[in-house]
Amino acid sequence: MPYPKVAIVFCTGCRWGLRASWYAQELLQTFGDSLAEIALVPGPSGQFQVLCYASQEQEATDSGNTIWDRRRDNGFPDSKYLKQAVKATLFADSGPALGAHIARAAPAALLKAPAEPLQHCDDCVGDT
């Protein structure tokens, strides 16, 4: 498999496939050929994670960098934040330059701040 790669793990029961596809499109549009692969991975109930792998060893040992986790981070990322996190994780100082509108710090990393921390997914029957 080619590297670096990004995997977006999402719950199909929550119908987050379109959201995952949108994030993938945003990353492809920003990073283009610098990313070798973006994978959309159906995952467990209520899960939404964005993982980065710089090498095959990281993926084989499941030691990729989790740059976003819906439960840990209490929601979904703003696309600016996600792009900044991917650049910082996979490309550091070398990758493609982000536009000034993206490079400016986002006031919040979330699309919409939740009223209370998200512990479970009400849309999924099997979520714990």
UniProtKB/TrEMBL annotation:
The keyword Repressor does not apply. It comes from the Eukaryota. Pfam families: Rdx (PF10262). InterPro entries: Selenoprotein_Rdx-typ (IPR011893), Thioredoxin-like_sf (IPR036249). Keywords: Redox-active center. SUPFAM superfamilies: Thioredoxin-like (SSF52833). NCBIfam families: CXXU_selWTH. This is ABR242Wp. It comes from Eremothecium gossypii (strain ATCC 10895 / CBS 109.51 / FGSC 9923 / NRRL Y-1056) (Yeast).
